[in-house]
Amino acid sequence: MLDAEVYVISGVEPEVGAYAMAKYSRSALSMRDSLRELDEQKAEKFLNTFYFQYGHRSIADLAHLSLAVERLSILAAIEVADETRWDGQERSTRYQEFRRTGYVTPAAYADDAGFAAAVEALFAAYDSLSAKVAAHLEAVHRRPENMKEEAYRRTLRARAFDVSRYLLPLATATSLGQIVSARTLEQQIVRLLSSEIAECRALGLALKRAASAPGAVPTLVKYTDPNPYRLESRAALRQAAAELMGGETPDSTPGVALVDPPTLEIELAASLLYPHCDHAYRQILAAVEALSPSRREELLALGRAGRGLHDEVLREYQAGHAFQFDILMDIGGFRDLHRHRRCVQLHQGYGPRHGFDTPAGAAECGEEAGYSAAMRAAGAWVEAHPGLDGAYALPLGFRKRSLFKMDLAQAIYIAELRTGTGGHLSYRQAAWEMFAALRARHPALARDLRVTDPSQPINMLER
User: Fold this and answer.
1) How many of the other CB atoms lie within 10 Å of CB of 359?
2) CA–CA distance, 122 with 168 (Å, rounded to integer)
3) When you count CB atoms within 10 A of the terminal residue's CB, does the N or C end of the chain come out lower?
4) Cβ contacts of residue 447 below 8 Å, gap of 6+?
5) DSSP for 196-253?
6) Residue 462 falls within a domain, yes or no?
7) Angle formed by the axes of helices 293-302 and 264-273, to 10°?
8) Is the dihedral of CA 184, 185, 186, 188 positive or negative?
């Protein structure tokens, strides 16, 4: 016989609910009794004592908010979603026509006709390629009798957008929704307020205002400000990366590399430098390994300098994973892999240095030359306007480097899920290369995995 009682708690403000949950470890009261005695003033006093004074940060995991963020750029959306404990959804480039959403212009180019012309040229190429790929697919793949016309059109449209999305600039306006704990929201706001991207700083302020409203989590976000530890370590590590790697040409070979760091200390030092240069992980590891132990210790010290009393160490300290994949792939495909937040992810910046990918669909419909011309023109504009604001005009087809660290279970999950035939070919290829690297290193562990070779033909009308 079951003596336990289970019931849903609803209609409770997030901070009051968090207070009631937290009291479980400090009171013999039931949840119902706790909620009856609570009010906002008691919750605020409790949180001020245990959360801010005693540092019991897990209390903020008990309060959740649902937030919508609309009319932000794809570039900023990537930054907003870059939280390990983030739950949300962004508008899909497969199912939405992004020409209609417009784009975000960074303040630095608000009155710059050249920026507008560069972005509008990409949208014009996006429109043209979408239509031509859809027409080509319709000519090649006739509708089966058992498939409804609406489903047929929707499928062809999605396949066409899979090709044309390579032309979308990072400035493209998008929207996202998120359901996050107050703890994740607090970290997200601090990270955004500490960003070098003006739009992200503005979003941090907007999220703080929204979370400070009555009925939200005003107590838990009231001390969110730009973080000196992040700002100081970023500047110091960027300078260190320039000094160590400045004389070496970055490797721009696209694809996936499974890398074995020699020691934990070398891995950590290389990880601290990785987001601040354009080099492959192997190149950075080799440079760090060649340093004297004292110089390596100086690099490690940069990652700790300026750390405040309540600051968590930088993400780069999440080290020691068995599988570390350095991935250079198109930004659009990266955005799909970015959703795998069980991985530790370190990201490098945006730019045209590593070149761009050309989707097979562009060549199949006879538009490869036009596509390449549009991409080269955009890349040249970004190269002539370096910096984060110029990167808004960079198309998703250009390559970006990221480091994904994970355990075996996550490597298997990504390999099986992302090689599936319904996915975009870009990330299917990356996931297949991850599987191939895993299989080469550990044949027995890779046996019987449910992966699909992306080189095999698929039915374009199935998703």
Assistant:
1) 24
2) 7
3) N
4) none
5) S-HHHHHHHHHHHHHHTSTTS-HHHHTT----HHHHHHHHHHHHHHHHHHTTSPPP--
6) no
7) 50
8) positive
pLDDT of residue 439: 97
- What's the angle, vertex CA 111, arms to CA 108 and CA 115, rounded to 5? 75
**Which of the residue ranges 13-17, 23-27, 286-290 would you say has the lowest mean pLDDT?**
23-27
Range(s) of the domain holding residue 25 = 1-62
| Beta strand 173-181 pairing with 255-258 | unpaired
d(CA 155, CA 137): 10
Q: How far apart are CA 98 and CA 120, in angstroms?
A: 12
HEC string of 341-366? CCCEEEECCCCCCCCECCCHHHHHCC
Q: Which two tokens stand for residue 335?
A: 């955005």
Indicate whether 57 belongs to any domain.
Answer: yes
Which value, in Å, is the radius of gyration of the alpha carbons in the chain? 24
Residue 309 pLDDT level (bands cut at 50, 70, 90): confident
Query: Does 220 map to a domain?
Result: no
Helical ranges in 281-406 per DSSP H = 281-289, 293-302, 331-337, 360-364, 368-384
Q: Give residues with Cβ within 8 angstroms of 241, minimum separation 6.
A: 273, 276, 277
Tokens of 383: 């190269």
Q: Is residue 449 part of a domain?
A: no
